[in-house]
Design brief:
With 310 residues, this protein is of the alpha/beta class. 38% of the residues lie in helices and 24% in strands. The chain is built from ten helices and 14 strands. A ten-stranded mixed beta sheet has the order 5-4-1-8-9-10-11-12-13-14, with helices on both faces. It has a four-stranded mixed beta sheet with strand order 3-2-6-7, with helices on one face. Helix 8 packs antiparallel against helix 9 (270-285). The longest helix is centred in the last third of the chain and has 16 residues, at 270-285. The two termini are 32 Å apart. Bound molecules: 6-O-phosphono-beta-D-tagatofuranose. The site of 6-O-phosphono-beta-D-tagatofuranose has 16 residues, from strand 2, strand 7 and helix 8. 6-O-phosphono-beta-D-tagatofuranose is lined by residues 8, 10, 12, 36-38, 91, 104, 106, 138-139, 250-251, 253-254, 290.
Length: 310
């Protein structure tokens, strides 16, 4: 079983433009709403692949209802904590099609009450069983201190689960102390925790080695279009994604991690795991929505993924 934990989910409002120009009236071509919040995306991937998973976290208000119904439409089993006051946040994703790439503007989210925090703790204690993979992804909401965040992470170890982290800054620093099974930092998050220059592969490998020495089992450093560098106790993989016609890069990292967890849940080896994850992330990039990908397209991309053992 995989438990995905999104403490601060979002309703993504994706605005498609021809281009984005300052001091100009930039006409919206299309507005699309989709699931946001990172670990939610992982559940979408796992459910599409019929890998048993439960999506939990904290919702509030109409936006929360909308995100939950989008998740359920994609076959995700949701078991969230609902807070009376507050409103699940919106993330604004601006996609100027002529430029490529996207601009992401996120709200902080609503403040979590003590009662909600307690309910989240007991929900995790109820849900997590020995051997489950438990993935925390996305920024935590206001109202949860680093210490309290660490308390939630420690419940995974208490239930003998495997902790997976896709988080950043001081929350990631706190999580590293618990020797997670897998972390998936992007370049900026990796530089923050290791001080290494991610433009130099040797420095990336050095930083990953240090993290592995701390007891982390898998470090998947995502380097955007450059692909990823995977470090395990057995060695390194350099992974180059296929060239694709990018529409929206939002959610690529989350779908990548979802693909990896789907393979690990089926006990695939590291090469197969990250070949599939990379093909999934590439497929996501060709779709407007934050959580959309195509499994047929992924199958076609598999053989175009280049993998080198370092
Ligand atoms: O990774 C994509 C995404 O989940 C978007 O859907 C958007 O909601 C944003 O990231 C949220 O990121 P945050 O780190 O604020 O949780």
């Amino acid at each position: 079983m995989v438990i995905t934990v999104t403490l601060n989910p979002a309703l993504d409002k994706i605005i498609l433009l021809k281009r984005l120009e300052k001091n100009k009236n930039n006409q919206i071509m299309e507005t699309v709403y989709d699931i946001g919040g990172k670990a939610t995306h992982i559940s979408v991937v796992l459910s599409a692949l019929y890998v048993e998973n439960i999506a939990t976290g904290i919702f509030a208000g109409k936006n929360g209802l909308r995100v939950q119904s989008l998740l359920e439409d994609k076959g995700v089993y949701c078991d969230f904590i609902w807070q009376g006051e507050g409103e699940t946040r919106e993330s604004l994703i601006i996609v100027p099609q002529e430029e490529g790439g996207s601009y992401m503007i996120t709200q902080r989210g609503f403040s979590i009450t003590r009662d909600t925090f307690k309910k989240m703790k007991s929900k995790l204690l109820d849900l997590i069983k020995e051997g489950d993979m438990v993935v925390f992804a996305g920024g935590p909401p206001p109202g949860i201190s680093i210490e309290e965040y660490k308390e939630l992470l420690q419940l995974v170890e208490k239930r003998k689960g495997k902790l997976i982290l896709d988080i950043r800054g001081p929350y990631l620093e706190a999580g590293l102390q618990l020797m997670p099974y897998l972390i998936k930092p992007n370049e900026y998050e990796f530089q923050e925790i290791t001080g290494m220059d991610t433009s130099k592969e040797k420095q990336c490998m050095l930083g990953i080695e240090r993290l592995l020495k701390q007891g982390i089992k898998i470090v998947a450093l995502s380097l955007g279009k450059r692909g990823s560098l995977i470090g395990t106790q057995e060695g390194f993989l350099r992974i180059i994604p296929p060239e694709v016609q990018e529409v929206n890069d939002t959610g690529c990292g989350d779908v990548f991690l979802g693909g990896a967890l789907a393979m690990l849940a089926q006990h695939k080896n590291i090469e197969e795991t990250f070949r599939f994850a990379t093909a999934m992330g590439a497929s996501k990039a060709t779709h407007r929505e934050s959580s959309k990908f195509s499994l047929n397209q992924t199958q076609r991309f598999l053989e175009q993924v280049k993998i080198e053992f370092l």
